[in-house]
Amino acid sequence: MRENMKSKLNHWLLMIALFLSASATANTNEVPKDYAYGVPLITQESEPFFRVILPDDVYEQTAWPDMRDLRVFNSQGVTVPFALYSQEAQETRTKSWPLRVFPLDAQPHKAGTQPQITLKSTSGIEVTLPLDSKKSSGRSLLLEVPQEEEDYPALSQLKLTWTRLPQNWQARVSVFNSPDLKSWNELIEDAPLMDLTSGSDRLLLDTIDLRDGRNMPHSRYFLLVFKDDAQPADLNLSAVTGIAVSGRPAQDYVTLAPSVKALSQSEAEYSWSSPQPFSRLIIKPAQSNAVLPLEIEYRSSERDSWHPLSKLGVYSVEDKESAPLELQGELIQAIRLKGINQQWSGMPPLVSGQREVRKLVFNAQGSSPFMLVWGNKTAAAQALSLDTLIPPKTHQWLTMPYAGKAQVQTLGGRERLTATTQAEKIGLWQKGLLWALLIIGAAGLVLLAIKVWREVQRQPE
């Protein structure tokens, strides 16, 4: 009987080994149904190449952040060659100049019916500005820009350097510019400045952005006017630097809104449906005329732990808002905001993420209609570089019209976003069968041991 049992066990092990060693040949011919979603493309001209503006849905519904699961099919169900690329960013250059600083004393007075304020320096420089009776003005500083090549540089930013104070403080300052000390134009109103300490961390907002979407004039003079109810009395400005930024990238972005979960009066979590390679984050207070110092953390997936991202102050004052937070290629699925020594009243800050717009060009092989599809976790990258798809020498004369788009269709559905490859399926089967083999083998050994023990008990002493 023992030999019969051993023979059955060997037979069963042979069948398991044959099953584990067998692997079905995967079907490498993809079809649109292998992908979650698709959109028919409308190509009326008979051109060899067409450009496609990707629907916004693509950015949130691809299974991979790098969009490797994009395909273009023709009417025969065959994939056609395509290129996926981003707009090339221009090189950004910065140059800075130290500015001469002249502290000014204020003397309010009236010139007819118009209230004015005259600002005088110890060296005799005098500046006269109209005075708004509804606003109070405090300390004022005159800045002189050095001349360069018979002109004055067009400054984009002013960076202030001050002696660090033992206490936290926030202030607001307005900026004027003038070519001759006589005619003055208000550039920025109530720009925020702050120097906050929380434990060993320091949050510094010391730069005023002058661009505001406009071309900056070549001004010789700038004037900083602090609000008298916000400026620390012992604030010592040691230097002011003018910064010119040229060659800013004219990049196109697609904006993706997150789901928001308020955790407390000073903490909120913002999450996206899938990890995103954001280029920048736009964060601003929900209330107007507000300044919020924030600590920002991020995670790359739902199972990831939180990592520090940045500490910064965001503001929304009049029609001015803080600049977006530029990122360095971090993959972000969620962020968490914490107020630094401050709570936000009512709604938490408003957040959105921006990633670069991707562009697609495909070769119209076969017959129309063509279909753009996306959303397949098992897909490998097939996109070519633009120069590989289209020889660079033909770019100048080649016509590439835009393909129209119909409505987005559901093809394989959302389950394709988490699909597994054939190799992964075989691996899961093999792992499951291996565990089953180990469990059955252990059970067999237990039964064999019990049988041996019983036989020993039956033998006469």
UniProtKB/TrEMBL annotation:
It comes from the Bacteria. Keywords: Membrane, Signal, Transmembrane, Transmembrane helix. Residues 1-26 form the signal peptide. The keyword Membrane applies. The chain crosses the membrane at residues 432-453. It holds the Pfam family DUF3999. This is DUF3999 family protein. It comes from Erwinia sorbitola.
